[in-house]
Structure formats: structure tokens, C-alpha cells
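Quick review question:
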């Protein structure tokens, strides 16, 4: 990925003043991947878990890089500028912080265990109809991807809709300090990344770091359906929403005439029946859109044209078969919600769920896979096709004789069997953690 620079003169001034870059230098884009470098790009050598970008400096130069950022002295050819930083990761955070401060922009920052991307994309679609709006693309929400994305802000930008992710303690604190949010939303807090967070209490603490860093004139948007968010005390200015608890923005929804009817403080909206993932996140989106002055009609128009991001509940129709691609990632709560959603859907010949492992659950992995098996036992799903060693615990704990359950050693075997039973009128739901690569199955059947 090559990252755009919205206002090159601002970034160049930062690099010249703080890092000694010569004024004659030209700057195109920024990349941390030597294979993505073009002429006059800036290449940042990052040492990661799998490889070290310092090994590819020569490749980056050959591909056209004119500025190299490293964490150690390195010999480069004449005409190539070298910036030596104590830490290239800290360099990224530093330039992004200074660049962001150069703009008077209202940032809406979104974090949470589930629903971040769908919430961000829907809110962005709504806000951009009225304001010049920036977002971080795709899943660039990490301590490297998010700061580099922020360098794309332009001077005409009025609002930013930013997704913040974290897999370790302190990452949301770091990122929200860079973003300096005017509005902060935590979608929910549930079990995920336990291998690095160790405890659920650490997850809660990390998510709530966003509220600690909302600027002094800003607002915390609080999900009252989540007890850990509801009882948090971080920000004095708060606006609440909830489907199940009393809140300032009170919502309810029901499936009626093949559409979800969503009622929020006596305002009614319609969402297509394949938009359950939108419904779950719509109340928070509406809350923010309403308080920044966007009309109900504009919100409904944006919902009507919104397409769920790939692999996050996207609906595919093939030869009369409905496929729900929810394969991007999974944790216990998102898996539970997905199973409940599929179980609530009617008018299908049969319902088939392709389930992969839930990763990064640490010592609680077996417990949560057992729990999913028990949930499936009470569902209306007809077939459960599992892939991944830990899903054997799911299979063992499905006690219903009305559910056919199978475990497969390979995705190839699973796909072959799935193709043998699927037919027009079926519903197929695919869900698992990212490393399962279940999109391979989606590609084969769609």
C-alpha cells in the first residue's frame, strides 16, 4: 500500500524542520513496502514480526524511492536522502501527530470489539453527503496504518471518520492522542485478542482509553447496552444510545414485511432484511449523525444505497442460493450474534453454517468454542460444517439431533461437501477468524 499525502508542503516542512530533509527534495507518496515504491516516494523501513524492512532498502531505491527512513545509519547512493530515526515506528507517530495538528478538523473516532468497520463506512457515507469528509481506508487502523492514513488529510476537510483498532494494551491511547477526537464512540466491548491482552479487564481498560482522549469540547457516545461502557466515567460530556437500556437515543427494531423497521426516539427508518449487521450498528451511527446536524431523510437515503463491506455480512446470491460472507474475523460475541441472526431468518430450504476457529482466545479458547456449540444446539440451523482443530469442541457440544454436524481437516474437503448439498433456496453463512482464510470457500461457491 502506498499512502497519499494530502498537503505535501506541510509534511515537507515537518521533515525539513525536525529531520533535516533538504528543501530541494520532491515527495510523491509514502510506503513501508519496497515492492509498492514509485518514483520520488518515501520508504520507511519497519522491523516487524515476520521481516525487517531494512533488508529491502536497496530494492526500494531501485524502484524509485528518493527518501529512506531507517533506525540505523545506512549507506545510500548519492541523490538519495537518508533520515535516521531512533525508531521508525515512532517516526511515523511523530510526523502523523504534527501533521494532524496542522488542520482544524473534527474527528469522529470509532473503536470497539465488533462492528468498527461497518459503523465507520456507514457513518462516512452519511457524513460525506453534507461535509467534506476523510476516512482511513480498509483496515488501516493500527499503530502503523492509521497514522500513515492520516497523512492524507487535506486543508478542505471538515470531518474525519476514523476507525481505531488495538491488539495490545495502550494502542488506543497512542492512536487517539494522534487523532484528537471531537467525538468518540466505542461500539461494544467483548472477548478478543486474549493472547495479547491476557484478561478481559485489560480489554475494557484499553477500549476506554478512547474516552480519555476526547478533546475538551468533545463528546463521548456511550452504548448503554454494554455495561462496561455505560458505567465508565471518563468524559464529562456524554450522549447515550441503547436498544435494550434507557438512553437519550432509544431504539428498537423488528423484521416486518421483509424489512427491518428501526424506531429511534419516534423516528422510523427502514433497512433491508439482509442488513442485520447494519441494524446492529445503526443506532450509534444515527446518534452521531443527528448531533452533528444531518437530516433523517439524508440518513435514510444513505442507508438505502449503503453496501456492507466485503466479508462483514455481505450478501451474495448465486443460482438461487443466498450466501452471507461474514468471514473477515470472529470472536465469541460476533459469532454468537451471527448465529442468532441466521437462526432468525426464515423462508429458506435449509440453513448451512460454515464455522472456522475463533483465534487469539488464549486459555479460554476451549471454553468459548464449547459455548458456541451450546448456542448452535438451540438454533434453527440445519447443517454445521466446521474447519480448524478447535472447532471439534463446537461439534462435541451440539446436542440437537436435528442438526447435521461435520468436521473437515481441509477447506478443500469442506468445500467439496458443501457443493454436494447446497441448492437453490438455501442460506449459507460463513464465519471464522481471519487466519482461517474462509474467503477461499466463498470464492469457490460464489
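Suggested answer, residue by residue:
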Amino acid at each position: 500500500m502506498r499512502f497519499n499525502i494530502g498537503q505535501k508542503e506541510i509534511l515537507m516542512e515537518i521533515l525539513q524542520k525536525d529531520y533535516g530533509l533538504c528543501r530541494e527534495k520532491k515527495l510523491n507518496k509514502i510506503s513501508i513496502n519496497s515492492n509498492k515504491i514509485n518514483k520520488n516516494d518515501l520508504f520507511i523501513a519497519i522491523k516487524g514480526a515476520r521481516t525487517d524492512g531494512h533488508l529491502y532498502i536497496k530494492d526500494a531505491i531501485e524502484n524509485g524511492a528518493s527518501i529512506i527512513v531507517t533506525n540505523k545509519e545506512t549507506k545510500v547512493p548519492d541523490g538519495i536522502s537518508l533520515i535516521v530515526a531512533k525508531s521508525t515506528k515512532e517516526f511515523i507517530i511523530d510526523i502523523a501527530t504534527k501533521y494532524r495538528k496542522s488542520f482544524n478538523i473534527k474527528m469522529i473516532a470509532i473503536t470497539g470489539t465488533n462492528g468498527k468497520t461497518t459503523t465507520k463506512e456507514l457513518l462516512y457515507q452519511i457524513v460525506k453527503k453534507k461535509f467534506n469528509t476523510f476516512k482511513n481506508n480498509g483496515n488501516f487502523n493500527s499503530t502503523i496504518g492509521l497514522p500513515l492514513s492520516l497523512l492524507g488529510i487535506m486543508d478542505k476537510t471538515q470531518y474525519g471518520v476514523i476507525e481505531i483498532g488495538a491488539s495490545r494494551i495502550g494502542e488506543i491511547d497512542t492512536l487517539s492522542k494522534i487523532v484528537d477526537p471531537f467525538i468518540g464512540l466505542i461500539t461494544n466491548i467483548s472477548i478478543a485478542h486474549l493472547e495479547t491482552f491476557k484478561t478481559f479487564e485489560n480489554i475494557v481498560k484499553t477500549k476506554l482509553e478512547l474516552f480519555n482522549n476526547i478533546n475538551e469540547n468533545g463528546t463521548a457516545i456511550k452504548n448503554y447496552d454494554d455495561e462496561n461502557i455505560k458505567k465508565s466515567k471518563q468524559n464529562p460530556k456524554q450522549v447515550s444510545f441503547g436498544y435494550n437500556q434507557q438512553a437519550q437515543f432509544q431504539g428498537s427494531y423488528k423484521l416486518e414485511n421483509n424489512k427491518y423497521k428501526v424506531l429511534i426516539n419516534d423516528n422510523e427508518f427502514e433497512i433491508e432484511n439482509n442488513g442485520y449487521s447494519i441494524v446492529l450498528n445503526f443506532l450509534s451511527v444515527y446518534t452521531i449523525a443527528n448531533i452533528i446536524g444531518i437530516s433523517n431523510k439524508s440518513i435514510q437515503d444513505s442507508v438505502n444505497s449503503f453496501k456492507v463491506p466485503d466479508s462483514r455480512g455481505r450478501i451474495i446470491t448465486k443460482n438461487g442460493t443466498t450466501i452471507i460472507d461474514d468471514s473477515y474475523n470472529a470472536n465469541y460475541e460476533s459469532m454468537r450474534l451471527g448465529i442468532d441472526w441466521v437462526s432468525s431468518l426464515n423462508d429458506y430450504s435449509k440453513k448451512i453454517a460454515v464455522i472456522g476457529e475463533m483465534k487469539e482466545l488464549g486459555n479460554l479458547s476451549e471454553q468459548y468454542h464449547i459455548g458456541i456449540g451450546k448456542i448452535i444446539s438451540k438454533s434453527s440451523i440445519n447443517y454445521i460444517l466446521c474447519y480448524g482443530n478447535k472447532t471439534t469442541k463446537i461439534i462435541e457440544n451440539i446436542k440437537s439431533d436435528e442438526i447435521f454436524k461435520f468436521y473437515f481437516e481441509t477447506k478443500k474437503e469442506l468445500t467439496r461437501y458443501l457443493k454436494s448439498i447446497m441448492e437453490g433456496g438455501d442460506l449459507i453463512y460463513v464465519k471464522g477468524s481471519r487466519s482461517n482464510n474462509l474467503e477461499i470457500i466463498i470464492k469457490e461457491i460464489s
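Why it works: Residues 314-445 form a domain with the Protein-Tyrosine Phosphatase; Chain A fold (CATH 3.90.190.20). The radius of gyration is 23 Å.
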